[in-house]
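Q: Structure tokens for this one, please.
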Amino acid sequence: MDVLSFRTEIRRLIELRQEGEYWDFKKEWYQNKSDLLHDIICMANNLSNHDGLIIVGVDEETDYTICDVANDPNRKKTQDIVAFLREKKFAGGIRPTAYVQPLTFGKKIIDVIVIRNDRNTPYYLTDQYQGVFANNIYARIMDTNTPKNASADINVIEKLWKKRFGIDATALDRALLFLQKPYDWVDSDDGKKFYKYAPEFTLEDIQAEGGKDGYEFYLFNQCDSRPRWYDINIYYHQTLLYSLGGATLDGGRCFTSTPRTDGISLYKESYHHWDISYKYFIKGSIEYTVHLFYITDDMDEELTARQRFLEC
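A: Here is the predicted structure, written as tokens:
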């Protein structure tokens, strides 16, 4: 999300004049570090499948007015938050990912601590830090955080573990999760690959139907620019979950999913077509995940072809 869209989202939350399941308001920056840690853990363990947002510089007691935090003596930047979390002992050595996004409203500055949503829940400490206890699982439920001297209810903890293992996810989301572990996929006799811990998930790459033989600009950056197009199909049992394009590069030395296509119209009269088109991957998208899935680390020629492809 770009800064402008993010600012619009934060304004919308402020105008709601209430806290919620993934956002919280603070008038000023934390004086007590254990409070900061506790709130970050709670937001990392929210159940909304949304980034947690701690909005610093909004006063609930004065009808959610904005308070400038530019000169707050306790103000922190992203580097400070990262260093603070790095010092704490989290289970498995996996810490929440957090950063600080400053935003300007009028002439006033607020800070938003963004805690990224991911599948590493539940986050909890293995060593106590001040009043934040070891092995207590804190969570954000509706607009309330679990108290420091307690753990979340068992049903909440269950949901957080299900999230980690993908049990609560759709079939496509689970497939996307499994594709992030390419070494756990096995070749079958029929030319497909299957995920060894859930063999009902399979993947195949077959020559594209319809005799596709056109060129894309990124092919001309290869030593061998001849096009070879494929269909990459992801199945759950016999159900096709997703199909995307694939291509071999440099005469078959490298295989990749094909990037998305978009474009820009420069003139009003050309709104119905693109004057400039471009290709791109979005980190975390299924196209980019499949691109990473096919990377092998045993051939220099593949590495060269892949680098030529990505630098186009």
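A few notes: The first helix runs from residue 3 to 16. The first strand starts at residue 23 and ends at 26.
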